[in-house]
Design goal:
Blueprint lengths: L4 E3 L3 E8 L2 E9 L4 H8 L18 E4 L2 E4 L12 E3 L12 H8 L9 H14 L5 H7 L11 H15 L2
Parallel strand pairs: 2-6
Antiparallel strand pairs: 1-2, 2-3, 4-5, 4-6
Bound molecules: FE2/S2 (inorganic) cluster (2 copies).
One FE2/S2 (inorganic) cluster binds next to loops.
């Protein structure tokens, strides 16, 4: 269990392991969400802030390889976890196959939902490479997109599946 260093009477300092790097959070507040800490304290704006109540999936990250809404996780509760954000998916700044397929298939319009969907789809295809369309729809049902109607997103997932299977 990682120690939390209390500073004064209300703030805490602690460490988080994010995308394979140890990051320090200085003088935070115990009640801050992981989403807030990522964006506002650690300069990682990939996870987006829309509803802040677990409804839209725009803040999706992986916590110990489990997909979670970062807005619903207390950052100070994640000190013993491996956190992966969309910034940590690509290799050396290169796009992942899912990100490339989103671009190629026209699955990005305003882009606000895109990081959360990219994380959710990587998570799904890592666990279920051959997921059928209804499984894909179910897997991304927690990620709201107001622009695309989902058709191009499903096309992007199918393109990645074809590419990964060598078709
Ligand atoms: S901002 Fe976290 S689910 Fe909407
Ligand atoms: S592309 Fe705009 S919300 Fe999905």
């Amino acid at each position: 269990m990682t120690e939390l260093d209390t500073v004064g009477d209300a703030s805490v300092s602690y460490g988080l392991r994010i995308n394979g790097r140890d990051r320090a959070v200085q003088a935070g507040w115990l009640g801050e969400s992981l989403l807030y800490v990522l964006r506002e304290r650690l300069g990682l704006p990939g996870a987006k802030n829309a509803c802040e109540q677990g409804e839209c999936g725009s803040c999706s990250v992986l916590l110990d390889d489990v997909l979670v809404c970062a807005c619903c996780v207390l950052a100070a509760d994640a000190t013993d976890s491996d956190i992966r954000t969309v910034e940590g998916l690509g290799d050396g700044g290169r796009l992942t196959d899912v990100q490339r397929a989103f671009l190629d298939e026209g699955a990005v319009q305003c882009g606000f939902c895109t990081p959360g969907l990219v994380i959710a789809i990587h998570d799904l295809l890592d666990r279920r490479p051959d997921a059928d369309e209804s499984t894909v729809r179910e897997a991304i049902s927690g990620n709201l997109c107001r622009c695309t109607g989902y058709g191009r997103i499903l096309a992007a997932v199918a393109a990645v599946q074809r590419e990964r299977s060598g078709d």
